[in-house]
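Q: A small favour: would you put together sequence and structure tokens for a protein?
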Amino acid sequence: MARKKSKPLEAEFVMFDVFYADGSRTSNRRVPTALLGGLDGDEPARDAIMEQDRIIAEKSGKSMLEIETIVRSGKAVEKPARKAG
């Protein structure tokens, strides 16, 4: 007797890589799936990650870094070409 295939599970979180203005990067930052989608797409992830960074900055006593780019983890990122010289 054949078994019934299970339905794919809805993920609770989406992982993002965050690139900061100073050139540093953090990987696999978790953002709740419920915040994403709709007309804004992944833009609400920026607010969620900024809130996470604010909490981390308070606890560590260091200042927050300016976020340059946010991309879903696993997606290729274009790096700017280096100037010859």
